Amino acid sequence: MSSALEISTNNGIGIIRLNRPNVLNAVNVAMLNEFRTALYDLRRSPDVRVLVLTGNGRAFCAGIDLSDPAMDVEGPAEERGRKFALFMDESVNLLMRDLYAFDKPKIAAVNGVAVGGGCGFALITDIVLAAKSAFFLHPFTPKLARVPDMGMTWLLPNLAGRARALALTMLGDQLSAEQAAVWGMIWRCVDDERLMPETMKIAKQLSEGPAEVYALLPRIMDKAFQNDFSTQLDLERDVQSRLVQTRDAVEAVMAFREKRVAKFGGR
What we know:
- This protein is α/β, with parallel strands linked by helices.
- Helix content is 49%, strand content 16%.
- A hairpin with a 2-residue loop joins β1 and β2 (13-18).
- α5 crosses α6 and α9 (211-223) runs antiparallel to α10.
C-alpha cells in the first residue's frame, strides 16, 4: 500500500507532497493520520526550518474523498451525525489545529485544483503561491448540502472578506489563481513551470531568517482581527520586548553596524 504523502527534507526545507494523484489527492483518513505524524516529526526536527506543501500529479487537493468510509451516509440520521462529529474531532480538526500551530514558516505551492478542504490546506499556510492553471473551488454548499469546513469559514472571510466568502461558497463558482491573487487571498500567481523554483527560492530565504520571529508573526497578525488598535500596540510591545532578548536580534544589530549580512541561528 503506497503512502498518502511523500516527505523529503533538503537544506533546512521540509517538503510534504500529497500523494494520491489517481484521485486528485483527495483526503482520506489515512492521509489525515499520516499528515499529523509528518507535522509532528518536521516540527521537532532541528534540521527543518521551513515547510513546503504541494501535490503530486495535476491537482493540489480535491478535498475530502467521498468514497472513504468516514463519509458513509447509511444508517440512522442521528448516528451518522454522531460518527461524523467524531471523525471531525479526531481526524480533520486535529490536523487543521496542528497545521495552524506549526511554528515554522509554511508555504503552499498550489500546483492544480484546490477543492473544499484542499483550499483549507493551502490557505492555512503563511505564504501561498499558485500556478496560473490552478484554481480554487468550494462546492460544499451548492453540491453537497453542507457548510465549508477545515477552517474555511474562518480563513475565507479573513482573507477575502465576507461578501466574497459568502458568494464563493453559496454559488460554488470556480476562482482562478490569478483572481485569488488580485483579491489578496494568496501571495502570488506564477507561470506553471515557475511554481516550484519560485517556491523553493522563498523557502530558502525563510530558512536563513530569524526563526523565532517567524513563529510569532502569524499569531500577532491573526490577533489583529479581534484586537482594537491600542490592544494591538500593547501586543507588539510585549512581543518586541521578548524578541530583543534573543541572539538573533543582537546579531541583526551587529550585522547592520558592521555592514554585513546577518547570520541567524534561530534563537
